[in-house]
Amino acid sequence: GGGMAGAAVRLLLSALLWALPAASAEPRLRFRAPAEPPVRLFTEPELARYAGQEEGQPIYLAVKGVVFDVTSGKEFYGKGAPYNALVGKDSTRGVAKMSLDPADLTHDTTGLTEEELKSLDDIFNNVYKAKYPIVGYTSRRILNEDGSPNLDFKPEDQPHFNIKDEF
Predict the structure, then answer these.
(1) Is residue 1 part of a domain?
(2) Which residue did the predictor score with more confidence, 69 or 26?
(3) What CATH number corresponds to the domain at position 52?
(4) Residue-range definition of the domain harbouring residue 47
C-alpha cells in the first residue's frame, strides 16, 4: 500500500521539474532587461587599433575617458575623413579646443579655459553621448595611477535616442 507515498513523491518530483525551466529562464530574462552593458577597459594600444584605417573595422574615439563607437559617422571619422585625427585615442583636449593639432589630441585638459571646458561638456553630452553608443572607458578613467581599480568610477548613462530624431 505505498500508493499515497508514491503519489506524494511523484508530485514533489513534478513540482521540482516544473520549477526548473523557470529557474533556468531567469538569467535570460534578467539579461533582456536594459542591463548595463559590460564595461570594457581600453588601454591606449587597444584603442589605437580602432582608428578607422581598415575597411569594416569599428571606429572608436574617446572623450573624457569614455570610448564611443563613431562608426556610423564614418564620413567624418573614417580614413581620410576630416576628423580622422581624433579617433583611436582619447582626444578630449582637441574636442574642447576644436583643434586637430596633434599636440591637442590628448586626454590632458590642464590649462583649458572655462569656455573650452564648457564647450567640451556641451559636445560630450549633445554630440557624442546623444549620437554614439558607449563601448567602454579608457584605462585612465577606470584605474588609478598605480593600476588599482578606481572605486569612484561611475559609468556614464547612455540615453538611447538619436539627436536627429529631435528635429
Answers:
(1) no
(2) 69
(3) 3.10.120.10
(4) 41-157
